[in-house]
## 1
Amino acid sequence: MLKNKSNNRIRYSFEDIIGESQLITQIKELAARIGTSNSTVLITGESGTGKELFAQAIHGLSSRKNHSFVAVNCAAIPHELFESEVFGYEAGAFSGAKKEGKPGKIELAQNGTLFLDEISELPYQVQGKLLRVLQEREVERLGGTGSKNVDIRIIAATNRDLKSLVQEGKFRQDLFYRLYVFELKIPSLRQRKEDILPLAYHFINYLNDQIAQNVKYMSPELQEWLLSHDWPGNVRELRAFIERGMNLVEGDTLTIENSFLFSAFDATAHKTVEEEGTFAVSLEEAVTKAEIGAIQRALKESNGDRTKAAQILNIHLASLYRKMAKYKLK
Ligand SMILES: Nc1ncnc2c1ncn2[C@@H]1O[C@H](COP(=O)(O)OP(=O)(O)OP(=O)(O)O)[C@@H](O)[C@H]1O
Ligand SMILES: [Mg+2]
């Protein structure tokens, strides 16, 4: 439960940040300049815009790159465990503690970078303690008697407006100013529509390798739809959308139906495979089963009305007929 992505290695560098729009180019340039400094960085932006990607890239550019990148997701750690996770504890600090004690994330990030993701969720009492670490450059474990020097760089990220949380008294102002040295504002995907198609092709190429597909094109309707969608979930949503389509596509062209059919019935597909008691079933078989199940349910729900069924499935009527013929469904 507490494996908060702390494998201490980075997976992404600046080359992995796709996008040539003016907005993303400017942010990349700014991030590259910040990267070489040792200052604290606050990365802001909507969910799924690539904040963690930037955090890793900045670490990879810094003089700390050969040391750990330790990620702490502040929203994922239960409050009562927060202090011991982040500050560590000495032997016998509390009941249930490990006999030999345990270093906290701060110690694990020594000489490297501590990435505090979703910093807005940092419990209030921990905010004060963290501020002390940043000011004194020392950390004391729970139940400890002495403190250790720390040399870490902090990169924090949030998709909430920290300033208004400060105004509401939910986030300490002194900590806010300590973090707010450089702010890197990652623009939403809808603000940089030029990046949508390059990102989509990037994910297609990646998935071609991963799941042995050979997609080279996107249909004009799909491209148009991608460009007109608002992407509230930003790049993460785009990636998931493309991934769904890539699991269903046949041939070298990704179409809009590919992504939509699977989206509504994702959970059913998993269930079918799991009920079989085996994961050795090929992807194609699993997808076929999911499609058949989805179509049958839609037909049942619409009392055999195919137009309605196609609406439920969010596909064109023609494509419903094609699939029914293919699977010999009535
Ligand atoms: N510019 C980009 N190029 C390539 N991949 C990207 C880009 N931006 C985001 N991604 C991918 O999108 C997904 C979401 O990115 P990330 O986890 O960094 O978002 P986030 O801003 O931290 O979101 P959240 O606020 O929800 O934590 C990841 O799979 C990431 O690799
Ligand atoms: Mg994130």
Note: Confidence is low (pLDDT under 50) at residues 1-6, 262-280.
## 2
Amino acid sequence: MKRRPFLVGATVVAGGVGAAFTAVPFIASWQPSARARAAGAPVEVDVDKLEPGQQLTVEWRGKPVWVLRRTPSILERLATLTDSGRLRDPLAEVATQQPAYITGPLRSLEEEYLVVVAICTHLGCVPLFRPEPGSVGDDWPGGYFCPCHGSRFDFAGRVFKAVPAPINLEVPPYRFLSDHQIEIGVDPKPTTS
Ligand code: FES
């Protein structure tokens, strides 16, 4: 007679364990987002809470992508750099590194926001966010510093001369869904005139 409570208890535990084991494959198949992301599904980013000078990182196609909100002072420094002779490709002329609709030295759809793949074009390390001028040498204007072999990029993802990385960081396809919604992985809709 005393076995009954034990059997009930054992059944509940076994049921619980069984439920846990069966739930894992169910959840894995029920959440396609990770697989879809790796396969290239677009990623929406809300930049509403991004303060000037801040950046966030999202994952797209298994790669980190930065969205940086550039300040007026960053934009001024980028303009100075364009004509400084310090950059390898200041006007972003290497066509593989950005979609055709991203033109000009700021390498963006809206000058306030940089969207760039956070993978060094030398051997694939993730560079560091180093916004403070002078923090990576006296002439450092703020930008991205790769800790692996010292490549440097500005806040348009443009590579400096005399570093191992040969070309600018990649700008992925993206579009604005609203003033503060960016969709990465999708080209802008063609405008009709
Ligand atoms: S991987 Fe960045 S400098 Fe080598």
Note: Residues 1-32 have pLDDT under 50 and may be disordered.
## 3
Amino acid sequence: MTRVAIIGAGIVGATAAFYLSQEEGVEVTVYDHGVGQASKAAAGIISPWFSRRRNKAWYRLARLGADFYPRLMQDLEQVGQPSQAYEQTGVLVLKKKEEYLDEVMERALAKKPESPLMGELEFWTRDQVQQRFPGLAGFDRAFWASGGARVDGGVLVQDLLQAAGLEPIRKEVKLSWDQGQILVEGQAYGKILLTTGAWLGKVLEPLGYQVDVRPQKGQILDYQLDEVTDTYPVVMPEGEADLIPFRDGKVSLGASHENDMGFDLEVDPQVLQELVDQMQAYYPRVTGLEATGVRVGIRAYTSDYSPFFGPLPDQDHVWTVSGLGSTGLTIGPLLGRELALGILGKTGDLDPADYPVSRYVNR
Ligand SMILES: Cc1cc2nc3c(=O)[nH]c(=O)nc-3n(C[C@H](O)[C@H](O)[C@H](O)COP(=O)(O)OP(=O)(O)OC[C@H]3O[C@@H](n4cnc5c(N)ncnc54)[C@H](O)[C@@H]3O)c2cc1C
């Protein structure tokens, strides 16, 4: 029997827990503090194809991460835990200068052959958009991709843990050394997964590691709009403020990207007002709406904005991952599965050497 400890049950830890629970001869214990978790605070947009980022390793991960979602949904269904957290509702991209939409289309068409998941690509008139999402304004033309999706990170984490039959132990775990071996809360485990997101430094630095991961605060508003159904698409105007509708009528507006705030989780009304002001040009109704909730979470960034995963440089029974940034819900499930395979010595779809831990974590 291999005893595996998973520290952190955001999207990565929960997916790893789910896939490890399918393996014979593996006993999994999940620990999760849960405070400030990015996965349950996230906007949930799964649409990496139109990014202007040139980092090829990152784009490959993002593309494969988006492609992995339908498979994850199937795998959950197969074990009798179908999830409604993910849905391909389509995305609308809006630009202040509408000629820039031509560039979006150009980039999308270039990537489409290897990413058929992005679906139909079209320009829509304002009337076409309004039929799909009444109340949107401030533009004549929008870019439409039918395969863009949204996911409710909090719901997906719950569904994965339930499918795994695992309830996390709710505590902030401390690691320690014992004769060159890392212990979890004083206990030895055969394998350890550190899926602690932005908190990786807090976990590893007391053991003498240097960790290049910094926190970024994100805030997001939730509204309840009764008319909203599962046919409403995600709306991505230029800037930070996106609209993400869910099938139960919840519509999220976000999210902020706040550096230099450390692990602060206070709601900042001024930042929220800025999100509303940005969205006002495209969804004038938003100004009069009362929010039903605010979520605050902490993203993890490395100094070159690249994620990493794999074994710790000097401890090959301890695998870790972090630096998922603002696309962590997109790439998190794929990385969770890669960690589950990797820790058991199996080969996945990615090579950890392309995302080396040693670039960001050292003793
Ligand atoms: C506001 C916001 C909007 C976002 N929008 C999107 C989006 O639209 N699309 C997208 O793809 N991504 C988005 N992201 C990014 C995405 O949410 C994250 O990158 C991703 O969820 C990170 O997952 P994770 O599992 O690595 O970390 P997390 O979800 O943060 O989970 C880490 C968990 O580890 C726990 N932990 C840490 N230390 C310990 C310890 N010592 N002991 C026990 N538990 C511990 C934490 O409490 C937490 O629960 C957004 C993020 C935010 C904050």
Note: The chain has a mean pLDDT of 96.
## 4
Amino acid sequence: MSFTKRFLCLAAAATATVPLAVGSAQAADWSGYDGIERFEAELRPVTVNNSEASGTTTVWLDGNTARVRIEVDEILADHPHAQHIHIGGRGECPTDYDAGIHNGRRALSTVDGLDAYGAVETSLTTEGDTSADSGLAVDRFPTAPGGAFTYDRTFDLSQAAADAVRADNAVIVVHGIDYDGDGTYGDVLGASELDPALPMEATNPAACGPLHMKH
Ligand SMILES: [Cu+2]
């Protein structure tokens, strides 16, 4: 996989709030969001990775059709940020105690957090496939121009993902950190255990939040 940076024209600012009409040909009727379940996650920085990235996620779910809206700021600018719905763990974010030693430095890799948040089930890509196969599709994730991004996409979740969201077992993880503050993904932590062609900085969690039903 080539580690290409592709700059996507995503709206960097928070814009409209719900309710709003989604003008698409989706089967779901989003008008007014009547009867549509809503879940929210508070994304908190993974501080052991020297990340200050934070934000919010809202998931509206109608059957298996989901609208996923993510707002993140204070994240490394102009670099792709893989982001996923993880399932099958404890439905929690890892703590600093879950961190390992990577290239002699204490940091939390994606694997270090698996027991807490589980495996990738849904890749929150900007276009195309959203399965786990696209987990590191770095040319189809937000690149955070200016250090922030807003992601908003409506697509069908897998049955497993929809079930996990409703079972309070789904966790949003946004990846890609700048551990040493040099403004890019480098080798300070060595290579990623997920793909040795990528630096670990490119795949370590930056922000994390468990999804909970919003009543
Ligand atoms: Cu992930």
Note: The CA atoms of residues 50 and 179 lie 5 Å apart.
